[in-house]
Write a structure and sequence with these properties.
single chain, 255 residues, alpha/beta, 2-enoyl-CoA Hydratase, Chain A, domain 1, four-stranded antiparallel β-sheet, 8 strands, 31% helix
Length: 255
């Protein structure tokens, strides 16, 4: 993740980023150390609450007590952040979202996360066998258990399918005069030729009849590349809108 940040900064002519959307949707997590490192990268220890906590565990065994705290500075220099999560965000990604939320470093946007906040330990048995037991639970800096609860977003945004505006006819759903059976045609003066354009229904039939050709496939690819963001990924679209608002708020506060 930090390598990607450096790459983005290079593409930005080495200028500091004005904001960041951290997309943790459908991220099932990884190891604890990685989640701590990612969180630590955006947390400036002197400005944190809860003694700089990122995550801690509580359990029955003496060795199951663990605390992870931030150490370094904020690589974004307090630029606004939005974190995207959904039901597929679990484990380590929930630790990151919970830490950034409790430390008021980022706004969490999307839907409630999976809720995998338990620590499993393999206990050795005889004959080279073992048993995996849940020995501790993960908690956010504010003391919220992640297990079976997950991280609730600050701004709930569900995944919606918004069709792109193409015209004021609601994608051909509204009837026009030309769509009516036996409608009157306007003929070009002196030629007897009709200047009638193909009706919406005719164009739909023509498109359906010609589907599957190579040219149509190329056209489909072009259409996909031109699909606006609010149609292809509504949650990301709203995350960018929120980020722009945070940027304006930050700029107004600095004046």
């Amino acid at each position: 993740m930090l390598k990607r940040y450096k790459h983005c900064k290079k593409d930005n002519d080495q200028k500091p980023l004005q904001g960041l959307v951290l997309d943790l949707r459908n991220n099932p997590g990884g190891i604890l150390e990685s989640s701590v490192q990612v969180s630590d990268a955006f947390l400036d220890r002197p400005k944190l609450k809860y003694d700089g906590l990122i995550v801690y565990t509580k359990g029955r065994l003496p060795g199951s007590q663990l605390q992870e705290k931030a150490h370094g500075g904020d690589i974004l220099h307090e630029a606004p952040m939005v974190v995207l999560v959904n039901g597929g965000s679990a484990s380590a990604s929930e630790i990151v979202a919970g830490a950034l939320q409790d430390q008021r470093r980022a706004l969490i946007l999307g839907t409630q996360t999976f809720g995998k906040g338990s620590v499993q330990t393999v206990m050795p048995l005889k004959d080279k066998r073992g048993i995996k037991l849940t020995t501790a639970l993960y908690y956010t800096p504010a003391g919220r258990s992640i297990q079976a609860t997950g991280i609730k977003p600050d701004i709930p945004i569900h995944r919606l399918k918004i069709q792109a505006d193409q015209d004021d006819d609601l994608h051909g759903l509204l009837l026009r005069e030309e769509d009516l059976q036996n409608h009157l045609n306007t003929e070009k003066a002196g030629t007897g030729e009709s200047d009638k354009k193909p009706s919406t229904a005719d164009m739909i039939r023509e498109a359906e009849g010609a589907s599957g050709t190579g040219k149509d496939k190329d056209k489909d690819k072009d259409k996909e590349s031109n699909v606006p963001l609010y149609s292809s990924d509504y949650q990301l679209y709203e995350a960018l809108n929120v980020l722009k608002g945070l940027q304006l708020q930050r700029a107004a506060g600095s004046n």
